[in-house]
Design goal:
Layout: E1 3-10, H1 14-21, H2 27-30, E2 36-39, E3 51-55, E4 61-70, E5 75-82, E6 88-98, E7 113-122, H3 125-150
Pfam families: Polyketide_cyc2 (PF10604)
Organism: Actinomadura sediminis
Protein name: SRPBCC family protein
Length: about 150
């Protein structure tokens, strides 16, 4: 099963970044290209099993179900239920960790966070490479770049 992965270091503490990202329903606030995002039943955005509905370019619909939410580990997992991309069995994960170690320059050390966004997925052989790149570069890296600007 292929995996797409992107990461970034943000200029904010892991606790600050997680307090923002722990809301599974707020993707439209920070993810470029997502026009609207709601939790379908209006319930809590950190409830296991809630489904977020995202509307993207050209009214494309993405529906994703929260499968794990770990405040202590600053992470959540989700699965894609519906999307316009030729992928199946998508299992995503977003995780925030503190940057640790001695301060050795202006861009390292405490007070910063490391954010990882990844997914395992299935696609037809002819689509696998392109979909891996789309998820990694077009979605995850783009989203993390937007978060880096937000926490600039």
């Amino acid at each position: 099963m292929p995996r797409s992965y992107a990461s970034a270091v943000l200029n904010a503490t892991a606790d600050d970044v997680w307090s923002y990202l722990r809301d599974f329903g707020n993707v439209a606030e920070w993810m470029p290209g997502v026009e609207t995002g709601v939790i379908e039943d209006g319930g809590p955005a950190d409830r296991i099993g809630c489904v977020r509905r995202l509307i993207g370019p050209g009214d494309s619909v993405f529906r994703e179900r929260l499968t794990a939410h770990d405040d202590a580990g600053r992470a959540y997992r989700y699965e894609i239920l519906e999307c316009p991309l030729p992928v199946r069995d998508v299992r995503g994960r977003l995780r925030v960790s503190p940057v640790t170690g001695p301060v050795t320059g202006p861009d390292t050390g405490p007070g910063r966070s490391f954010v990882e966004w990844s997914a395992d997925f299935t696609a037809d052989a002819g689509d696998e490479l392109a979909m891996g790149r789309t998820l990694e570069r077009g979605i995850y890296a783009t989203g993390l770049e937007a978060l880096a600007r937000r926490f600039g």
